Amino acid sequence: MEEQVHKYNLKTIIFSIFIWEGIFWMTFFGLYFYLIDQVEAFRFEHSQFLWWLLAIPAFIGGYFLLINWKNKVLGNLADQRLLHYLTQPVSSMKSFWKFFFFRNALAFLLIALANPQYGKGTTKAVSEGIEIMLALDISNSMRAIDLDPKRDRLKVAKMAIEQLLKNLHGDKVGVVVFAGDAYVYLPLTIDYGAAKIFLNSVRPELMSNQGTAIGLAIDKCMESFDFENGINKSIIVLSDGEDHEGNAITAAQRAKEENVIVSTVGMGRTDGTPIPDYLNGRIVGMKKDENGNTVTTRLNEQMLQEVAAAGGGQYTAAQGTYVDLAGLLESIRGIEKTEMDSKLYTDYKDHFQWFLGLGLLCLIIESFFSARRSGIIHKLQKI
C-alpha cells in the first residue's frame, strides 16, 4: 500500500480527465454551433485563436507522459518499502485538480483572445454622391509652359484634379484622356487614392494620334456612364480648347439632353506661346512646322465657354498654378446627390472579459493546489 501513496494512480487521472474532456468539448461545440448558426449578431472577432484549442489534447498527452515518467523514476529510485523514507506521499486527485484548473485557464484565455462578440444594434451607412468623368487633354499643346515657368499646362491640370479630389466626398470619379483620339484611362471609382496614382502616369506619349478632339472626349465620358442606375452625372473637361474636330459644342448639347452637366477648365493663356520639344524627358528646343516655323499654342477661351454653356455647366480659367475650382465645386455640390450604396453595420459589444476573468480565476485556484498528499489524510489512512 505504501507504493500507492508515493506514486500517481494513472488510471484514476486518465478516467477523471476523460470524463471532463467529454463534458468540455460537447459543451463547447454545442454552444459554438448554436451561437454561430442561430444567433445572427454573434461572432468571434479573432476566430483564428480558437484553432489553438486543438493544442489542448496534445497538452493532455504531455501531462500523461510526465506522470508516467515520474512513476517510473520513483520505481527505479528505490525498493517500494523504502519509498516512504525518501519521498513525500502524492495525491492523484490533487494532481488532477491542479492540472484541471491550469488546463481550463488555458482554454478560457484562448477564448478571451478570440473575443466573442454580440451585436447590440445595427447602423445603416448610406453613401450618396454623383458620378464625375474628367476629360483630360494630353495633346502636345498641353506641354506649353505659359502658366508657370516650372510646370507645363498638363502638370497644372493634374494638380487641379488632385485638389478637386480632396474636396469630393462619396462621389465616383473616372478619367478620359484625349488628344486626336480619346479613351477611358480610369473607369468610375470611389478610390481617390487610385485616381491620384493613375494621374501621375498621364503624359502626352500615351496618345500617338495628336490633335484635340474635345467632342470625342465628351462622347467617351458619356459611354462610361450607366444611365440605368439613376445616379446624377457630370463631365469636367480640362483643356486648352484648341479643338480640331469642331463638334465639341454639339457633344455638350447631347450630354445636357441626357441630364449630364458639362463644365470646362481652360488651361493656358490667350496669347501665343511656343510648344517645347522633348527628347528623353528633356527639352531640346521648340516644335517647328514643316516650313521650320515655331509652332505656337494659345488658350481658346471662347470655345471652352461655349462648350460649358451648351452643357449647362460652368467655365473656369487657370491663373498660373492656381485653378479656382470653388465655383465649379459649388456647382457640383448643387447637383442633387443620389444614394449610391447602403450597408447595414452591426455595432458589436465585446465579451472577452468574462472568459479572461474565468481564466485568471483558474490560474489563481491552480496555484493553491499541490500534488502532495495532505498529511492529515495520509496519517488517517495509516490508522
List the helices and strands and how they pair.
Blueprint: H1 2-6, H2 10-38, E1 42-44, H3 55-77, H4 83-86, H5 92-114, E2 116-129, E3 131-137, H6 153-166, E4 172-178, E5 182-189, H7 192-200, H8 214-224, E6 233-239, H9 248-257, E7 260-266, E8 273-274, E9 276-279, E10 282-286, E11 296-297, H10 301-310, E12 312-319, E13 322-323, H11 326-334, E14 338-350, H12 352-367, H13 375-382
Parallel strand pairs: 3-4, 3-6, 6-7, 7-12
Antiparallel strand pairs: 1-2, 2-14, 4-5, 8-11, 9-10, 12-13
Helix pairs in contact: 2-5, 3-5, 5-12, 6-7, 8-9, 9-10
Q: How would you characterize this protein structure?
A:
45% of the residues lie in helices and 23% in strands. α2 packs parallel to α5. The two termini are 13 Å apart. The strands form four sheets. Strands 5-4-3-6-7-12-13 form a seven-stranded mixed beta sheet, sandwiched between helices. The longest helix has 29 residues. It is built from 13 helices and 14 strands.
Shape verdict = elongated
Radius of gyration over all CA atoms, rounded = 39 Å
In what order do the strands lie side by side in the largest sheet? 5-4-3-6-7-12-13
What is the end-to-end distance? 13 Å
Question: What is the H/E string?
Answer: HHEHHHEEHEEHHEHEEEEEHEEHEHH
How would you characterize the largest beta sheet?
7 strands, mixed
> Residue ranges: pLDDT <50 for 5 or more in a row?
375-383
Mean pLDDT: 83
**Percent range of helical residues:** 40-55%
Structural class: alpha/beta
Number of strands: 14
Determine the strand fraction and express it as a percent band: 15-25%
